[in-house]
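2024-03-11 09:14:02 DEBUG pipeline.ingest accepted 1 chain
2024-03-11 09:14:02 DEBUG pipeline.ingest length=111
2024-03-11 09:14:03 DEBUG pipeline.predict start
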Amino acid sequence: MFELSISEYMVVAVIALSLVGNLWLSRSLQKIRQQREKLIQELRQTKDLVRKDRQTAMDTGQTLACLCVQLNVARKLKSRDPGLASLALERAQELAGDSLERVRELEVRTR
């Protein structure tokens, strides 16, 4: 059987601890790299969603602006019950205007 001195045991212990430490660091680094890749993928997805949301907001804003113009034209062309038609058109225009404002706020928040 081998007989080792205390200093030789200490060297063996240091080597063993070094190997364990390197293994732990290697596994930690691997986990960090995996987490980094996951975060990069999530960032790409988030950027894509923001881009799509911004485009949707702009498209919706243009649609609502056209709706407001059409409602103004409809108000001028009303023929039947002018009073009721006018009230309905005013309410629809208020709703469209509110929606347009919300879309603009969404666009500003996503910049």
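2024-03-11 09:14:41 DEBUG pipeline.report The chain has one domain: 6-109.
2024-03-11 09:14:41 DEBUG pipeline.predict end
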